[in-house]
Design goal:
- With 202 residues, this protein is an all-beta fold.
- Helices cover 0% and strands 59% of the residues.
- It contains no helices and 18 strands.
- The strands form four sheets. Strands 6, 7, 8, 10, 11, 12, 13, 14, 15 and 17 form a ten-stranded antiparallel β-sheet that branches.
- A hairpin with a 2-residue loop joins strand 14 and strand 15.
- It starts with a strand and ends with a strand.
C-alpha cells in the first residue's frame, strides 16, 4: 500500500484527491494499493470561513415549510428526518447571518433518505433563486465518514465561481422515490477571493 499526504500552505486548505477528474477522497491522507501507473491530483484552495447560520427549513411542494434548525446546531449527532416523501422541488434551506460570497457548501446526510439528484441554489432576497453552476450532484455520490460516536455521508460542493447570497438551499431535481429527506448538518463557507482551486499531481 501507498499513502499520499497533502499538506496545504499557510492560507490554503486541502479540497480533495482526484483520478481522471473523479473524486477518490476528501481526506488529506489517502491510502491505496498500487496496481498500475496512475496519476493522483491534490486540489487546494484559499482557506474558507465557515459562516454563521441563523435559521433552517425544509419545504415540500405539496405540504409547505417545516423548521429544521437541528441541521445548523453544529452537531452531527442530531438530524432532521421528514415525515413527507421527497419530490421534485423539495428543498432544504438555510439563512446566513449576513450576505456573503459563497465558496463551498457541505451537506451531511444519514444512511438513507438522500435525494437522487439535487443541486445548490442561492438567493439574496429569498424570492428570486439562482442555480449555482457545477453544483448538481447524485445522493449516491455522498462520501462515508465514520467519526465515533456517529457516522455520516457528506456531499461537498466547491463553487468555482463564487456567488453572493443571504440564503442557500439544496433543491431536489430528481427525488429518490418513496424516500423521505434526512440531513444531519448543512454548512456554508465564505471565500474572500474569486479563484479556482490549485492542483498538484503526483
Amino acid at each position: 500500500n501507498v499513502t499520499l499526504t497533502a499538506t496545504a500552505n499557510s492560507g490554503y486548505e486541502f479540497v480533495n484527491w482526484t483520478v481522471n477528474g473523479n473524486i477518490v477522497s476528501i481526506s488529506p491522507e489517502y491510502t491505496f494499493t498500487v496496481n498500475s501507473e496512475i496519476e493522483y491530483v491534490a486540489h487546494f484552495q484559499i482557506a474558507l470561513e465557515k459562516l454563521e447560520l441563523t435559521a433552517a427549513k425544509a419545504t415540500f411542494p405539496s405540504y409547505g415549510s417545516i423548521t429544521t434548525n437541528s441541521i445548523i446546531d453544529g452537531s452531527y449527532n442530531t438530524d432532521y428526518l421528514s415525515d413527507i416523501v421527497q419530490s421534485t422541488g423539495s428543498t432544504i434551506e438555510v439563512t446566513l447571518a449576513r450576505e456573503a460570497l459563497i465558496g463551498k457548501v457541505n451537506m451531511y446526510f444519514g444512511l438513507n433518505n438522500r435525494p437522487h439528484i439535487a443541486m445548490i441554489q442561492v438567493s439574496t432576497d429569498n424570492k428570486h433563486w439562482k442555480d449555482v453552476e457545477g453544483t448538481k450532484f447524485k445522493g449516491d455520490d455522498a462520501i462515508y465518514q465514520s467519526v465515533p460516536p456517529t457516522y455520516r455521508y457528506v456531499i461537498t460542493k466547491h463553487i468555482s465561481q463564487p456567488v453572493v447570497a443571504k440564503y442557500v438551499r439544496m433543491y431536489v431535481v430528481t427525488p429518490q422515490l418513496t424516500h423521505n429527506l434526512q440531513m444531519k448538518e448543512f454548512e456554508v463557507y465564505e471565500t474572500h477571493i474569486d479563484v479556482a482551486p490549485r492542483t498538484i499531481s503526483v
